[in-house]
Amino acid sequence: MYNIYRLLINSNFVFQEGHLLKLAGQIRSVVGKHLVIVNCDSAQLPRLYADVVDSHQKPVGKLVEVFGNIKNPCAAVYCKDTGNCAINEKLYTK
Description:
Number of strands: 7
Number of domains: 1
Mean pLDDT: 85
CATH class: Mainly Beta
Distance between the termini: 21 Å
Radius of gyration: 13 Å
């Protein structure tokens, strides 16, 4: 159990309320009412069309595209409403 806990602390995974969440990235910018641009880690890119949630596991949207430089990729997340999305907020995939 200790090794699993140590692995979770040193990686981009978060264990919260019985679910293992993978870090999708931090919000870089909010574009209009339905699009959020997220900075991603190039070593662990999130899956396309994955459900994206915030740190409280509230649904944010779907990851629809990964683009940009190989060393510093970005992702586009389509949201129903970007009203509660803040710059530098961390987003996760299930």
